[in-house]
Amino acid sequence: MNDRTPPHGSLGTARGTALYLGAILGPGVLALPGLAAQAAGPAALVAWVALLVLSIPVAATFAELAARRPDAGGVATFTRAAFGDRAAAVCGWWFFSVIPVGASSAALVGAAYIADAAGLGRTAVTVIAATLLAMAFAANHIGLRLSGGAQLVLMGLLIALLAVACVAALPHFDPANLRPFAPHGVAGIFSAAAVLFYAFSGWEAASHLSGEFTDPTRQLRRVTALALAIVATVYLALATATAGVLGGSAAHSAVPLTDLLAYGFGSAAAPLTAVCAALLSLGAMNTFIAGASRLGAALARDGAMPASLAKGHEPGRTPHRSLAVLAVLSGTAFAGAAWFGLGLDVQMRATSAVLAGVTVLACAAAVRLLTGRARVRALLATGCTAAIGTALSWYLLLPLGIAVLALAYLHLKRRRPLPHAVAVRQGA
């Protein structure tokens, strides 16, 4: 039985699955195969498989929690029910704060492929990335119904293109490309898993949209299962093709997906990859921005952020104020990354570190809230995610710093007198 009466949103199974896929099948498929190959060589396949296996209990845990507590607060709502307001504020601030960095890197990844296809330089990459970022925020400003419909079309085209890329490339698979299999040893595999976590961190983002489903109890488990099956198929095919077809060159290629598409489309591969890059980037940003904007409004509703941001937290409405704050933060993160020349590896590991913290805390909450097999899955998800998170080393200082800020905000807010108390003192 649900812990609250399900709200009446607008998302059905098809558009809901498309939004989930947008969160998982993000720009990671464009950049991460090369980054993982650089970290672990062909043994990156082990990291891909391990994270896919980990995704099963993680996805199941988030689906179970979201079905029982469909709310825009998502991970913060789950964490509050298990550990109280402080933990919920920390978890919420983690997710809200990391989206601007993740959105910025997603836009830059897509823009890099588009610019490469057009033969343009670094300035063009920045302009294209800014355009993609603006488009994602505009789609969310218009409303989730339009965003969800657009996502359904985008994800269908994207999956078809990725399937063609893998089918065209796999006949060129050469076992010799898998030797040496693990040139950097076990440490390399853990390093690859750490950066690949970016590609698998999307279940928590979609949980913030649970209140938008017409029937969360029935739909969320079905949507999660469909999304997980599609993600597993796409990622395994892509990882296998990258290792067995591209071999060592994958570690040095800035556009590995273009290299795979070249086997089937020749000179047309670059423009096709540019289309794929735009779809991936927009799809991921669309879902993460939608989830984070609703989270910001829910946090404000619950007192963990300024009350003025709470407007629009109800299902079916767009939280424009929270969305505006998120847009400003994303623009700042984008400008900062461009100014300091932060590479994608740095940005993706930073994003992974914070999202790993979100996943661990939310899954730990599930251990307290769920029972039976669901609790066992939650315990497995918590332990495995925490183990992979240790490979992110000093990047874990980011979630620690954000946690300190969240707790400091709560402390200052509680010390600040209520308006009516001030009025009483002044009247006296």
Automatic annotation (TrEMBL):
InterPro entries recorded = AA/rel_permease1 (IPR002293), APC_superfamily (IPR050367)
Chain segments annotated as transmembrane? 18-39, 45-66, 87-114, 120-140, 152-173, 185-203, 223-248, 260-284, 323-344, 350-371, 378-410
Q: Write down the membrane topology.
A: Multi-pass membrane protein
Q: Which UniProt keywords apply?
A: Cell membrane, Membrane, Transmembrane, Transmembrane helix
Say if the entry is tagged with keyword Transmembrane: yes
Give one Pfam family.
AA_permease_2
Instruction: Write out the coiled-coil annotation as residue ranges.
Output: none
Keyword Membrane part of the UniProt annotation? yes
Name its cellular compartments. Answer: Cell membrane
Q: Which PANTHER family match?
A: AMINO ACID TRANSPORTER-RELATED (PTHR42770), L-METHIONINE_BRANCHED-CHAIN AMINO ACID EXPORTER YJEH (PTHR42770:SF13)
> Which protein is depicted?
APC family permease
